[in-house]
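Why does residue order matter? Because the sequence determines the fold. Keep that principle in mind as you read this record.
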Amino acid sequence: MRRLLAVLSIVASLGSILTLLLAPPAAHAAPDADLWARWQAHDADSTATIDHSAFDAFLHKYVVVHDHGPNGVRYGDVSAADRDRLAHYIAAMEKIDIDRYNRDVQRAYWINLYNAETIDLVLEDYPVDSIRDFGGGLFHHGPWDDQVLEVEGEELSLNDIEHRILRPIWPDGMTHYGVNCASISCPSLRDSAYTGANIDRALVDNAKDYVNSPEGVHFEDGRLIVSKIYDWYQSDFGGDALGVIQRLRRFAQPALSARLDAQRGDIDGYAYDWSLNSERNIERHGFQPDDD
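Structure:
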């Protein structure tokens, strides 16, 4: 009997492990903003800049702008030479002594580095249906926890950049409109690089584009549906549904702002599409490139 019970226990344990292995990816759980104090150093008086022209050229070449939908990336068209240029840009960024710069230059640097590394990771495995299809480990999906960069001797993951540097140092919620997770429902990847001079204006423009797009905010049969970003990171957008709606109204066009005001703090649902933000996927969703 004891042997039988032992065998049954082993079988049950194997069954539990198999269930974990075969289970679908868990819902995205946002890490807290947890400051990595080592990256607080900066020089408020510095006028030095960082050259992002190589990344800017890459974005101009491969990002397709859509006026009324998310921008697409022509991953399949990236040449071997441009892939090398992207890798060299990332390597150059890793060598920068970022402590020497002012806060605006630093913010642009970290967002560009995050986005460039994300593109590079996608290109390593392309074609893929979603960024969550590669990277990670046994119990998490996607590349965000993998240590893929090294800056000033510190190994960094994408999550380190977003949640331990950008969000805690700049707790205004605008980081979410800058970093791009290579998904259709993420705020669009811009077709130009951020700089210390343009970072504030660019993030505001991104916020306006996103809030006034179906991926950010839309209504279904009178029900307010917003991006899951505002659920995952509610603490960055006012702390509750009313706070989220107030933040949305900052960037909403007049007609949308009036509808949001009528909600009186009620959000009826959240949505998010993890499909890769490839131009092919964007076109399949019916969005056409900007004529400009």
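The chain has one domain: 50-284.
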